[in-house]
Amino acid sequence: MIRFENVSYNYPDGTPALRNINMGIRKGEYIGIIGKNGSGKSTMSLHLNGLLRPQKGKVMVRGMDTGDFSKLQGIRKIVGIVFQNPETQFVGRTVEEDLAFGPENLCLPPMEIRRRVNRALAETGLEKYRYHSPKSLSGGQGQCVALAGVLAMEPECLVFDEVTSMLDPDSGKTVLERVKRLHEKGKTIVYITHNLEELHAADRIIVMDRGRIVLEGKPENVLSDPSLRALGLTPPSLIELAEHLKNHGVAVPWEKTSCPSSFAEEICRLFLKM
Amino acid sequence: MQEPVFSYVPGTSFLHTLDPRTKLAAVMLLGILVFRTESFFGIGVIFALFIALASFTGLPTGIFFRAVRPMLLFIIFIFLAQLFFTEGKVLASFWILQPSIEGLQNGLRLSARFILLLLFAALMTASTDPSAITCGIERILRPLPLRWLGVNSYELATMMNISIAFLPLLFERVERTKAAQASRGMYFGRNPFHSVPALVIPLIRGIVRDAEELALAMESRGYQGTRRTSMHELLMQKRDWASLFALVFFAALLLRF
Question: Cβ contacts (< 8 Å) between A117 and chain B: which residues?
């Protein structure tokens, strides 16, 4: 659905942000992109719907080149991005108006805009805040409004660019649950983060470092890869624990490492067997 | 938090249901009328019209006081200037000041006009959703050849919306910058001019960064600065035309006498 072909991009000061990236995202996939600050992951996300255009190579979204200005509106209808800071994403004075902003840009008729706004409100459980100012909401709810604003454009692919980094852990978890549910409903998800704990449910993880893809694969392989620490990333603690146990001859299967309770159950089961 | 001046009070009264364009036109018309009416009787009639409309909408009276209050000093100044510096029959004599009867009349008339203008404006903003007002302004401006000025009506409407939406964020940022500077030993009390650069420079940097993020988010949601539709459907209905017609009739009648 989305293809990067030999994409390179330099910051205005000349430092390379992306170096010769090749990758593809299939429809319905849940992709995690990780890397420490400055690894190029956010630059990559801005390339996904043509907010940045590659200086070399090209990015194709459903066969449309993001370098083609006449296709941009069509591309943004397909790929929506939720950004890190909820406060600077709001355009409207009320939640309702903010959600209408995207559909209004698509020049939809008023009836259709209302329908989409109502649907996005229902999907995110924000109906009771319809007439509230988005700025009066908490960080987690704010991020929900931002998500609803993108959902109102009914994109096939949703990009989340470090959406939890300004939230408290609880709201972060709620947002992550919501992402999972959207994936189950068939949306293509690109989830960008520097917190590896959040990527357990992904189909595929791409690790970036200094503008390059250095590691790519299924979470069970990537998250337990010994080179992660050298890249400045901390593997999830449960997976690290499982690795240590494996070195001592105790194998905890991958599925059980997603949360502490399933991990504990597995350990107890193994103990009882011994 | 203190309630802002000219805020919207949701409701379902007749005035609430009118098209924003009708109300904009009505306020303009009333503005002209107020400044064209010379007699105190005429001003009284307009004032009666305001009271009738205001009580009709059932809006809290507080909002009207709030609308006039910030301008009160200005109005008093105008009144006093008119009172003391108009030539005419001297009413009394204090020191070098000699208020005249003509001055008193002029002063009263002028201050009543300003107050009426503010009251009608408050009546409109209180009974109209701000986004509907911007939408109405956009629709009024649309036929004008604004592209000669390098903008279009859609851009103007978005600009109005965003500047209103971003004001609170701006104040919040000022507070945050102040706190950050104070925690590093900056003392704001002694010499306010001293602290201006230390406050303004990080503030502008922050605002520019916010604006950049906002621009990205807007572009990502398909904003192009060109034609866009609106969730608010504007339809001039019978009652809109009827109200405007009634108002024109009222104005003509009043100017006759």
Answer: 231
How is chain A split into domains, by residue range? 2-227, 236-274
Interface test with A, best of B128, B167, B220 (most A CBs within 10 A): B220
B120-155, pLDDT tens digit by residue?
A: 988 888 888 877 888 888 888 888 777 777 778 888
Are residues B70 and B135 in contact, defined by beta-carbon separation less than 8 angstroms? no
DSSP notation for B69-138: GGGHHHHHHHHHHHHHHS-SSB---BTTB--BHHHHHHHHHHHHHHHHHHHHHHHHHHHS-HHHHHHHHH
- What pLDDT score does B197 carry? 78
- Which ipTM was obtained for this model? 0.84
The stretches in chain A having pLDDT less than 50 are none
Q: Report the pLDDT value the prediction gives residue A33, as an integer from 0 to 100.
A: 93
Contact B221 A101 (CB under 8 A): yes
Inter-chain touch A135–B232, beta carbons under 8 Å: no
Cα B66 to chain centroid distance, Å, stands at 12
Q: Which of A212, A230, A228 is nearest to A23 (CA)?
A: A212
What tokens appear for B125 in the block?
């903003």
Q: Which fold has domain A2-227?
A: Rossmann fold (3.40.50)
Beta strand pairing status for A188-193 and A204-209? Answer: unpaired
Residue owning tokens 């029959």? B89
How close, in Å, is residue A134 to chain B by CA atoms? 10
DSSP 3-state of A21:
strand
Q: Which helix (H) or strand (E) holds A19?
A: strand A16-25
The ranges assigned to domains in chain B are 14-129+235-256, 150-220
pTM: predicted TM-score of the whole model, two decimal places: 0.77
Contact A31, A190 (CB under 8 A): yes
Pick from A196, A185, A191: nearest CA to A236: A196
pLDDT at B190 over 60: yes
Does B104 contact chain A (CB < 8 Å)?
no
Of A83, A104, A150, the CB nearest to B213: A83
